[in-house]
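User: I'm putting together a teaching handout on how sequence relates to shape, and I'd like one worked example. Could you take Potassium-transporting ATPase subunit F from Neptunitalea chrysea, show the sequence you're using, and then write out its predicted structure as tokens right after it?

Assistant: Happy to. First the sequence, then the structure tokens directly below it.
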Amino acid sequence: MMTLIYILLILVTLVLFLAFVAPKTYNVSRSVIVERPAAEVYNFLKYLKNQDSWSPWNKKDPNMKKTFTGTDGEIGFISAWEGNKDVGAGEQELTNFVEGSFVQSKLRFFKPWKSESDAYLRVEEVAIGAKVTWGFAGKNPFPFSIFMLFMNMDKAVGKDFEEGLQNLKDILEKPEN
């Protein structure tokens, strides 16, 4: 009986220790230079529907079901999706703008698990066009925070961000016909 108590005590101590050292937050971002005027890039990015043309997740499920609520490009607009196991189900809501430089949204995932993140697109004017930074940040609540000791969020979605930004660059830099 004492052995069982010691084992349980060790397990509880281990879980508490892991919860203490586990990352409580995450922030993943990537940037790209787009050789177009910053104002033009911002005006493209502030519309969530435009993400369909450059988001890597649309390629993962071209048959994804999408619904829209509100007026695109305005605070409160919601783009919702339901797709295969690679994209799950969720919604993205425009929550804040800084005209010409910043688009913020709330990402709410429903499947395969529930979570919420703050997503952002930052546009900065640079000598040859615009620097676009795409990222998202959030909290790792217990017990999911323990899993983050074994999963690197940056590695998990960083390549998707890089792919999406390259798609964005290709679209915006394409010569107009």
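A couple of points you could highlight for students: The helical segments are 2-21, 38-45, 51-54, 56-60, 144-147, 153-173. The chain has a mean pLDDT of 86.
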